[in-house]
Design a protein that fits this description.
With 446 residues, this protein is α/β, with parallel strands linked by helices. It has helices at 10-19, 33-38, 45-50, 54-62, 76-86, 94-107, 115-129, 136-141, 174-177, 181-191, 198-214, 237-246, 252-269, 286-292, 307-318, 337-343, 368-381, 401-420, 427-443, and strands spanning 24-29, 145-152, 170-172, 219-224, 273-278, 280-281, 300-301, 326-331, 356-358. The longest helix is centred in the last third of the chain and has 20 residues, at 401-420.
Length: 446
């Protein structure tokens, strides 16, 4: 991988030079908060590079690797060897590129990734991981992160984040819209409030939202999975809430819609951005669920989104007392990209750029094809200069190399558009737009 990787024109090379060292704003990820608090140290490269990365686990399963060497009882060196055996077979997969970038940027290792280099990589990384500058947080420092937002649930203690200059919680809201007795008990403990009714529940949530806001939270996200639907409030959700926490059957769509609309209003009052991750089909293999847990890398892309429900949610939020927050739409199904990019022109606010926007290529789509597709969709159906840019959405601290990957793809895409005449050969203008997409637009939201 040379310095001009993905940069095929002179203007793309100049553009990348102007954005490559910009600070990183990573507004949505799943970094382990305990690892951040304790500045975890890693005993070997498997703990750091392979164990926390479901992308790698999925690829090895596709190659037919025995689960014993993925999430099973094999020792870390044997798991590492299986990954090194797998890498040459992943040519053409983004993991092959990301893996090269991860080793190069963090450990300055630039060798062919195959079984022949395995022993050298194992020994060299083990030597480096023993040094003081290779702990969890020191590795993150290597990336120039200006703001990182790990996901936390509403009842989590977020006091750790208070006063942190470049670290803040991002609220993961899925448990709030599907309340259970356990969730409510956790919320009671976190707030010291009694929760017996939906009204009390919503008041307790507001108290926790204030605590997140104090800790620097500026983003909340909700997973609107395959089959998502939204309906207007029929006035019967107090009873549904009682049924939910009692474990009885109830109309989940009605209660979820009511709470989601309430939350959108509260987010806007606090000037947060709402992220909607749309279209994952999470229930696939029961076998892998038992082996690898709920985030084990086996989810699928779901059916196209119910656009009527999405528009109804945005419409009702816009017309609510609290109003519609800045909203970022992540679609897992590329078939939704054009429709969601068009929606950016349906909901607006005076003086606010991209009140609603199509977000970055997400999950199974955050590769070169998916990123270029999003750039094409936004530039064709929305306004490219307002795009919020890249976020990792990852559990691995090494995944921050994907910001470099995105920046290279963006600059290469712009250079190709100049060559074809679709973008003007105006470096000053293109540099301004590239810098907005790589840093400035996301920085405005934090």
């Amino acid at each position: 991988m040379n310095e001009n990787f993905l940069l095929n024109t002179e203007i793309s090379k100049k553009l990348f030079a102007s954005v490559s060292n910009l600070p990183i704003i990573d507004f949505h990820n799943h970094l382990n908060v305990s690892d951040l608090q304790g500045d975890r140290r890693f005993s070997d490269i498997t703990e750091l590079w392979i164990a926390p990365d479901p992308y790698k686990h999925r690829a090895m399963r596709i190659l037919g690797v025995d689960e014993f060497y993925i999430t099973g009882a094999a020792d870390n060196y044997k798991k590492f060897l299986k990954w090194m055996e797998s890498l040459p077979m992943l040519v053409g997969h983004p993991l092959y590129i990301w893996s090269q970038l991860e080793l190069k940027r963090v450990f300055d290792i630039d060798v062919p990734l195959n079984p022949d280099s395995a022993e050298f990589i194992w020994n060299r990384t083990k030597e480096l991981l023993e040094k003081s500058d290779c702990s969890n947080n020191r590795i993150l420092d290597k990336f120039g992160i200006a703001y990182s937002a790990p996901c936390c649930a509403i009842a989590d203690d977020v006091s750790f984040f208070v006063g942190k200059d470049n670290l803040a919680p991002s609220l993961r809201g899925d448990d709030m819209v599907a309340p259970t007795a356990t969730h409510v008990a956790n919320l009671e403990k976190a707030t010291g409030m009694e929760i017996k009714t939906l009204s009390q529940y919503l008041e307790a949530i507001k108290e926790r939202l204030d605590a997140f806001d104090k800790a620097g939270c500026r983003f909340a996200d909700h997973a609107l999975d395959d089959g998502f639907s939204y309906v207007t409030d029929d006035g019967n959700n107090e009873m549904r809430f009682l049924d939910a926490i009692a474990g009885r059957e109830y109309n989940e769509v009605q209660l979820r819609s009511c709470i989601l609309l309430f939350l959108a209003s509260e987010y806007n009052k606090r000037k947060w951005a709402m992220q909607l991750h749309i279209g994952a089909h999470r229930k696939t293999s029961d076998r892998l669920l038992q082996i690898a847990g709920p985030a084990g890398g086996y989810a699928a892309i779901g059916s196209p989104c119910d656009i009527n429900s999405l528009i109804a949610l945005l419409h009702d939020a816009e017309n609510s007392e609290g109003g519609l927050p800045r909203t970022i739409l992540f679609t897992l199904n590329p078939a939704d990209s054009a429709a969601m990019a068009i929606i950016t022109g349906s909901f607006s606010e005076d003086g606010v750029a991209a009140k609603v926007q199509l977000g970055p290529a997400w999950w199974w789509c955050d590769h070169a094809v998916g990123i270029r597709n999003v750039l094409d969709m936004i530039s064709s159906y929305g306004v490219l200069s307002t795009f919020i840019g890249m976020t990792t959405d990852s559990r691995s601290i090494l995944s921050f190399v994907r910001h470099e990957y995105f920046r290279r793809i963006l600059c290469g895409w712009m250079g190709d558009k100049v060559a074809s005449g679709e973008l003007p050969d105006d470096f000053a203008l293109l540099e301004k737009i590239a810098q907005k997409l790589c840093y400035e637009n996301s920085f405005e939201l934090v």
